[in-house]
C-alpha cells in the first residue's frame, strides 16, 4: 500500500516539474499554463527560458516577457502555419543560421526589447533568409551598433528599429522593394545626428518616423531622394530647434509629402520663436495635407509664411504655443484648411514634465540657446520689428473682432485649454463652412454674442469655462447647431430666469444638449419649448429637485439624464410628459440614478408609474429609495415595491376616498350621458341663443323670409361637383340663391356660428353625401344642425335633402342619417346624360317650393 502511495506521489511531482520547467526537450504540456484560443497561444510572463513545443496548427504564438536567451536551430521546423510570433521583452542574445527555419509563412515578428547585437558582432543576412513572407519586423530597443543586414527579407513592408548615432540603413535595407514604413522613434537621451547618407539608396519609403531621438542635426539632402515619402515625423527632438528645419523642408519639395510633423523641436523653457518664411518656402511646391507644429514656443509667424503653404493643406495643428496678435492672422483667410487646432495657447508647463534629459546637457544646447536669442531679440532689426508688431497689435485688439476672417474650407476649429479669459462679445464671421468649434477649458465667463455668420456650425463645445451668463441672442447666428456642450459651467445662475425660453429659441435643429455640472436648481417650463428635434438631454450632477420643463413635444427624444440630482420623485405632470414622448420614441431611456428617491404614501403614484411604464431606466439595479422609517430599499423591482407600499398605505381614509370617488364618477357618468344624448339639441340651442343675442342685421328679420333658397353642405373634396354643376344648375338655370360656405360665410366669424346662421337663413339644406362627407367633422356638424333646425324651428318640417354622389353601403351610414334614407328623403345622382336632366329639374322644383 505504501509503495502505491509513493508511486502516485512521484507521478504527481513529476507532472508538476514537467509543467513548470521550460527546456528544449519539454513536451506539449509546457503550454498548459498558457492561454489558449483558436489557433493562438499566449505564454507571456511564464518565466520560460527556452521556446516550448506547441501545436503545428498554431497561427499566433506570444512568448513576451519571459527569460528566453536564444532561438535554437530548427525549433520552428514544421510550423509553416505560424503567422505571428512575439518574442519581445526577453533576453535574446543569440541567433543561429536556422533560428527561423520553418517560418515560411510568418507575417509578423516582434523582437523588441532584447539583447541582440550585444556582442558587437554583425548578424549575417543568411540568418533571415527563411522569412520569405515576413511583412512586419520589430527590432526596436536591442543593442545593435551595426544594424543587421535584412536585405533577404524581400517581402518586408514595415520595420521598427532603434537609431544610434552613425548608424546607416542603405546597405542593410538594399533591395527591399516593398519597404514603405520605417519607424525609428525612441526615447533615447544619446545625442544623434542624421547625415545625408543615413538613408542612402532607400527610395521606397512612404512613412518615416525619427521622433524623440535627441537629434541635434539633420543634414541637407537627407530626404531629397525619397520621392515617394508621404509622412515624416521629426517631433520631440528638443535639441534640434528650428536650426535644422530649413534643411528638412528644402528636401520635402522633392518628395510626395502629405503629412509633416515637427512638434516640440524647441525646449519648454527656451526663448519664444518666430516661424520664418524661409522654412516654409519649399513647402509651396508640395502637396502637403496636414502639418503639425505644436509645442514650439512660437510667438509670431513671419508675414507671408502662412501664404506659402500649398493649396492642398487641410489640417493645421499649432496648439500649445505662445501666439500673439500679428499680421499673420489675416493670412489664414487664404488657406484651404478644413481643420485648425490652436488649443493650449499660453499653457504653463510643470518643470518636472520636461522631456529632455537634464543630465545630458552639452555645448550644443548652449549654442542653440544663443542661436534662439540672436534670432529673436539679438539684433536691432528684430527689436525694431517687434516694436512695430506690438504697435500694430495695440490697434488690432480694439478692431480685430469686427469681422473674423476664416479659411474658406475650414470645417473644424480647436481652441481649447488656452486660459483665455474674457466675455465673448458680438462676433461676425466671414463666409465659411465651419462645422465644429471647440472652445472648452478656457474662461469665457459670459456669452454675450451674438455669433453671426456660423450657419454651417453643427457642434459647439463651450464646456469647462466658468460661464455664468448667456444672453438671449447669443445663438442667433448659429441656427443649425445639432450638438451643444455646456457642461461644467455656472449656468445655474441664469437658466432658471429664462421663463420664456429665449436663450435656446434659435436652436431649431438641436439634437444633443449637455448641461451637466452647472449647479442648476430648476429649469423653467418653456426652457426648451422651441426645440422639437432634440434626441439627448444631459442634466446630471446638478441640484434639480423636480423635472418641471416641457418635453412632450420632443418626438425624437431617446435619452434623458437627470442622475445625481436632488429628485425625490417625479410628479404626475412629469410622468405624463415622459409617457407622451414614449408614444413616439419607443426606445426612450431615463437615467434617475444617484437621486434621493423616497418611497412614501404621498408619492406612491410615482412607484406605480415606474412599475407599469415601458420606458427604460438606465442602471435600474443600482436605484434605491428611502421608506418612511428611513430604511433604504432597492428599486430594482418596482412592482414588488408597489405591493409593499400599497399594504403600508392602505387605511379607511383610502376606502372613504374610493367611495367618494365612485359617487363622483357615477354623477359625472350620468351627467355626461345626458349631455351626450342631447348634445346636438344643446349645441343648436346654444348657437341660436348666441345669434339672437348678437342680433345681426340679416338674422331673424322675419321668420317667414329667407336669404337663401338652399344651404349646400359638402366636403372640400367634392367642391368641383358643387361649384361646377350644382350651383350652375340651381342658381343660373333655376334662378335660386344657394349658400356655400367657401363663398358666402362671413370672414372672421366663428365657423360653427356661420353654419348655424346659414342654415337658419336658408329655406332648405342640401347635403352632398359621399365617403368624404361622412368622414368630415364639419359636414356632420352641418347635417345635425340642419336636423335640429327642422325639429325645433320649423315645426318638424323636413328641410334636409340628401344627394348621394356615390354608392355607400347601408351598414356604414350613421343611424341618424339612416333614418332619413329609410324615409326616402334622399336622391342618388345618376351621372348620365338623360338622367342628369331629370335630376336637375326635379331638384330645382323641390328647392323652389
CATH fold group of the domain at 679-848 = Rossmann fold
The appropriate CATH architecture of the domain at 679-848 is: 3-Layer(aba) Sandwich
Give average pLDDT, whole number.
Answer: 83
Low-confidence stretches: 1-29, 352-356, 358-401, 697-703
Number of strands: 41
Question: Given the structure, what is the number of helices?
Answer: 17
Which class of secondary structure composition applies to the elements?
alpha/beta
Distance between the termini: 130 Å
Measured by DSSP, the beta-strand proportion falls in 5-15%
Q: Quickly name the level 1 CATH class of the domain at 679-848.
A: Alpha Beta
The helix fraction, in percent, is 25-40%
CATH superfamily of the domain at 679-848: Toll/interleukin-1 receptor homology (TIR) domain
Q: Biggest β-sheet, characterized?
A: 23 strands, mixed
Q: Which outline best applies?
A: elongated
Backbone CA Rg: 43 Å
Describe the protein.
It is a single-pass type I membrane protein. Residues 1-23 form the signal peptide. It comes from Mytilus galloprovincialis (Mediterranean mussel). There is one protein chain. Strand 31 (559-561), helix 6 (572-584) and strand 32 (589-591) form a beta-alpha-beta unit. The radius of gyration is 43 Å and the shape is elongated. With 849 residues, it is an alpha/beta fold. Among the domains are: 20-124, Leucine-rich repeat, LRR (right-handed beta-alpha superhelix) (Alpha-Beta Horseshoe); 679-848, Rossmann fold, CATH 3.40.50.10140. The strands form eight sheets. It has a 23-stranded mixed beta sheet, with no helix packed on it. The protein has a five-stranded parallel beta sheet with strand order 38-37-39-40-41, sandwiched between helices. The model is unreliable at 1-29, 352-356, 358-401 and 697-703 (pLDDT under 50).
Amino acid at each position: 500500500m505504501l509503495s502505491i502511495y509513493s508511486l502516485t506521489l512521484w507521478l504527481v511531482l513529476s507532472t508538476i516539474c514537467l509543467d513548470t520547467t521550460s527546456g528544449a526537450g519539454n513536451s506539449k504540456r509546457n503550454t498548459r499554463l498558457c492561454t489558449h484560443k483558436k489557433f493562438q497561444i499566449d505564454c507571456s510572463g511564464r518565466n520560460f527560458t527556452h521556446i516550448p513545443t506547441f501545436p503545428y496548427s498554431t497561427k499566433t504564438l506570444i512568448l513576451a516577457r519571459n527569460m528566453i536567451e536564444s532561438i535554437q536551430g530548427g525549433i520552428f521546423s514544421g510550423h509553416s502555419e505560424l503567422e505571428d510570433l512575439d518574442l519581445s521583452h526577453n533576453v535574446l542574445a543569440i541567433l543561429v543560421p536556422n533560428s527561423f527555419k520553418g517560418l515560411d509563412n510568418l507575417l509578423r515578428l516582434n523582437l523588441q526589447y532584447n539583447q541582440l547585437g550585444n556582442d558587437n558582432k554583425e548578424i549575417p543576412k543568411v540568418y533571415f533568409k527563411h522569412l520569405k513572407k515576413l511583412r512586419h519586423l520589430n527590432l526596436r530597443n536591442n543593442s545593435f551598433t551595426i544594424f543587421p543586414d535584412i536585405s533577404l527579407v524581400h517581402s518586408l513592408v514595415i520595420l521598427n528599429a532603434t537609431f544610434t548615432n552613425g548608424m546607416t540603413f542603405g546597405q542593410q535595407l538594399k533591395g527591399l522593394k516593398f519597404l514603405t514604413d520605417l519607424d525609428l522613434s525612441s526615447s533615447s537621451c544619446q545625442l544623434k545626428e542624421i547625415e545625408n547618407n543615413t538613408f542612402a539608396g532607400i527610395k521606397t519609403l512612404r512613412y518615416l518616423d525619427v521622433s524623440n531621438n535627441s537629434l541635434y542635426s539633420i543634414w541637407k539632402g537627407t530626404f531629397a531622394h525619397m520621392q515617394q515619402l508621404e509622412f515624416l515625423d521629426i517631433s520631440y527632438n528638443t535639441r534640434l530647434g528650428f536650426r535644422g528645419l530649413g534643411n528638412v523642408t528644402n528636401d520635402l519639395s522633392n518628395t510626395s509629402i502629405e503629412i509633416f510633423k515637427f512638434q516640440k523641436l524647441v525646449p519648454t523653457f527656451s526663448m519664444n520663436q518666430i516661424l520664418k518664411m524661409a522654412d516654409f518656402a519649399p513647402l509651396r511646391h508640395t502637396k502637403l495635407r496636414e502639418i503639425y507644429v505644436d509645442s514650439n514656443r512660437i510667438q509670431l509667424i513671419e508675414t507671408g509664411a502662412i501664404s506659402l503653404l500649398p493649396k492642398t493643406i487641410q489640417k493645421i495643428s499649432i496648439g500649445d504655443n505662445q501666439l500673439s496678435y500679428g499680421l499673420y492672422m489675416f493670412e489664414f483667410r487664404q488657406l484651404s484648411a478644413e481643420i485648425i487646432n490652436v488649443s493650449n495657447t499660453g499653457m504653463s508647463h510643470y518643470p518636472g514634465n520636461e522631456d529632455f534629459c537634464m543630465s545630458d546637457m552639452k555645448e550644443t544646447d548652449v549654442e542653440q540657446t544663443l542661436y534662439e536669442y540672436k534670432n529673436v531679440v539679438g539684433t536691432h532689426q528684430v527689436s525694431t520689428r517687434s516694436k512695430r508688431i506690438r504697435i500694430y497689435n495695440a490697434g488690432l485688439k480694439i478692431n480685430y473682432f469686427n469681422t473674423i476672417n476664416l479659411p474658406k474650407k475650414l470645417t473644424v476649429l480647436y481652441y481649447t485649454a488656452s486660459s483665455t479669459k474674457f466675455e465673448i462679445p458680438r462676433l461676425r464671421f466671414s463666409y465659411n463652412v465651419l462645422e465644429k468649434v471647440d472652445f472648452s477649458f478656457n474662461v469665457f465667463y459670459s456669452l454675450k454674442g451674438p455669433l453671426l455668420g456660423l450657419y454651417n456650425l453643427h457642434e459647439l463645445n463651450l464646456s469647462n469655462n466658468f460661464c455664468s451668463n448667456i444672453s438671449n441672442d447669443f445663438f442667433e447666428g448659429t441656427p443649425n447647431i445639432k450638438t451643444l456642450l455646456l457642461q461644467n459651467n455656472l449656468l445655474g445662475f441664469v437658466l432658471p430666469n429664462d421663463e420664456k425660453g429665449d436663450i435656446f429659441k434659435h436652436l431649431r435643429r438641436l439634437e444633443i444638449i449637455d448641461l451637466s455640472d452647472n449647479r442648476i436648481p430648476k429649469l423653467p417650463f418653456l426652457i426648451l419649448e422651441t426645440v422639437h428635434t432634440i434626441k439627448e438631454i444631459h442634466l446630471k450632477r446638478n441640484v434639480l429637485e423636480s423635472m418641471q420643463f416641457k418635453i412632450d413635444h420632443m418626438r425624437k427624444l431617446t435619452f434623458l439624464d437627470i442622475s445625481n440630482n436632488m429628485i425625490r420623485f417625479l410628479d404626475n405632470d412629469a410622468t405624463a410628459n415622459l409617457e407622451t414622448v414614449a408614444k413616439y420614441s419607443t426606445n426612450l431611456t431615463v437615467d434617475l440614478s444617484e437621486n434621493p428617491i423616497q418611497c412614501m404614501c404621498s408619492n406612491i403614484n410615482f412607484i406605480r408609474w415606474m412599475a407599469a411604464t415601458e420606458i427604460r431606466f438606465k442602471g435600474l439595479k443600482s436605484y434605491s429609495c428611502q421608506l418612511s422609517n428611513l430604511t433604504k430599499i432597492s428599486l430594482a423591482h418596482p412592482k414588488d415595491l408597489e405591493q409593499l407600499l400599497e399594504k403600508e398605505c392602505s387605511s379607511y381614509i383610502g376606502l372613504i376616498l374610493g367611495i367618494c370617488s365612485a359617487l363622483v364618477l357615477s354623477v359625472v357618468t350620468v351627467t355626461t350621458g345626458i349631455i351626450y344624448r342631447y348634445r346636438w339639441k344643446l349645441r343648436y340651442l346654444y348657437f341660436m341663443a348666441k345669434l339672437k343675442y348678437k342680433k345681426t342685421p340679416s338674422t331673424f328679420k322675419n321668420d317667414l323670409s329667407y336669404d337663401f333658397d338652399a344651404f349646400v353642405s359638402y366636403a372640400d373634396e367634392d367642391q368641383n361637383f358643387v361649384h361646377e354643376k350644382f350651383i350652375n344648375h340651381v342658381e343660373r338655370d333655376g334662378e335660386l340663391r344657394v349658400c356655400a360656405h367657401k363663398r358666402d360665410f362671413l370672414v372672421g366669424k366663428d365657423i360653427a356660428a356661420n353654419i348655424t346662421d346659414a342654415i337658419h337663413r336658408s329655406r332648405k339644406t342640401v347635403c352632398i353625401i359621399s365617403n368624404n362627407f361622412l368622414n368630415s367633422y364639419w359636414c356632420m356638424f352641418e347635417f345635425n344642425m340642419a336636423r335640429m333646425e327642422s325639429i325645433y324651428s320649423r315645426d318638424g318640417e323636413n328641410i334636409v335633402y340628401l344627394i348621394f354622389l356615390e354608392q355607400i353601403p347601408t351598414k356604414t351610414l350613421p343611424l341618424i342619417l339612416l333614418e332619413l334614407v329609410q324615409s326616402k328623403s334622399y336622391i342618388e345622382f345618376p351621372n348620365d346624360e338623360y338622367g342628369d336632366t331629370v335630376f336637375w329639374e326635379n331638384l330645382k322644383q323641390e328647392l323652389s317650393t
